[in-house]
Amino acid sequence: MPKKLQSPSGMHDIFGSQYDYFQKVREVVFKNAEIYGFQGIETPVIEDTEIFTRGTGKFTDIVEKEMYTFKTKGGDRVSLRPEGTPPIMRAFIQHGLYTKPQPVKFFYFAPYFRYERPQAGRYRQFWQFGFETIGRGGPVVDTQVIVLVYNILKELGIKNVVTEINSMGDEKCREEYKKALKKHLKKQSSRLCTDCKRRVEKNPLRALDCKKCLEVKAEAPQILDHICKKCCEDFRRVLEFLEEVEIPYDLNPFLVRGLDYYTGVVYEFFARSKKSGEEEFLALGGGGRYDGLSAALGGEERPATGAAMGVERIVLLMKKNGEVYEKEKPRVFIAQLGDLAKKKSLKLFEELKKANIPVAEAFGQDSLKNQMSRAAKLEADIAIIIGKEEAAEDKVILRDMDSGGQEKVKTSEIIKEVKKKLKE
Ligand code: HAM
After folding, report:
1. What HEC string does 262-307 produce?
2. Could you identify the atom of ligand 1 that is nearest to the CA of residue 124?
3. Is there an atom of ligand 1 within 6 Å of 57 CB?
4. For ligand 1, is residue 312 a contact (CB within 6 Å)?
5. Is the CB of 128 under 6 A from ligand 1?
6. pTM of the entire structure?
7. What is the CA radius of gyration of the chain?
8. Is it true that domain 16-170+227-320 has CATH number 3.30.930.10?
9. What pLDDT, in 10s, does the model give residues 25-40?
10. 307 lines ligand 1 (CB under 6 A)
11. For the chain, where do the domains classified as CATH 3.40.50.800 start and end?
12. Which of 162, 227, 268, 283 has the highest CB neighbour count under 10 A?
């Protein structure tokens, strides 16, 4: 027996209602991106692996455990992109966008790849939308990205969003914090899990992400007590701006995000829900300032800030909330019988479209009964029926789908008559 062929584990086909939900998210993202002055960008799905080892960070879970990395036939070491931020910075540097009016603001809606254990809301190919502002920064730019994402979630009907926020300091002041944290972790070494024991030397901040070492984390020094005056001031201003635009936030002194490039403010959006009486938090996305990424990838120093959101997780919530994505309903359905009628229907379909009248058809169907039940299912207001007789007479039947009343109309008068009936 030949093997049953299926999509790879953790990777999904998107069609039917799932596609419609994706389309809704896409529409809202594209609309808001335009309002806030972001231009679209598509980068290759595959990049030089170094983009991520130097960008995302060599000792992050993403790079250490989750990347699809392989050698090309030409011997290049490449990876399926696990995230969009380093590739977009690579594009900024490669195309010398320093000379364009700053900041350069990019948005994207694209698939990403992480070799994780598949489960609800966690896939190996997943979609993100995101926003990156490169070239000019500051608390107001950070805040605007948060506002933009918050507004998108609101427009999509996502309720109970919790925005957690923290500052990770810049590369210099974070070093001070890392020393203090290392000291604490070393003292508590016997209470740490194996992963965290290893992390202490290489990347102690990751221990703050650990779900197993919660007690040690709770007693750890807080980063806000160690960051410099400038980072403190920037952070205070982001909070002040958020209050100004009435975006609620929760301070989380241990929020460090799982990527190495952040400097300054970081934040994460969670959806809060209850399962068997327990509060659950689903990470919808996050972001922050990453002023060091340009230089890490070989470019000139440039401030930058951005955020990315998981589309599948947002869709999961839209469905859970009973948020129904209503596609535009066709107002008119064309039903046909016979070859000549099919030919006339094709032309009529184009004319109705040109007149901006939402129209549907089932040209592949020959049974009139099946076509009429399709028209009813689609909740069309009017059915235009072209049978053999009508096609020969150059007429059509207009049927009111609600009342069942119908009349014959000359082909040349259809658009006028349909418009009149739709107004009634
Ligand atoms: P991230 O937190 O790694 O950030 O990913 C953002 C969101 O992508 C997550 O909160 C989650 O909703 C979604 N996501 C991540 N992994 C998976 C998965 N395996 N399955 C389903 N959804 C997933 C970034 O990627 C940064 N590039 C964000 C950023 C942009 N920072 C600055 N600019």
Report:
1. CCCEEEEEEEEEEECCEEEEEEEEEEEECCCHHHHCCCCCCCEEEE
2. 19
3. no
4. yes
5. yes
6. 0.89
7. 28
8. yes
9. 999 999 999 999 999 9
10. yes
11. 332-423
12. 227
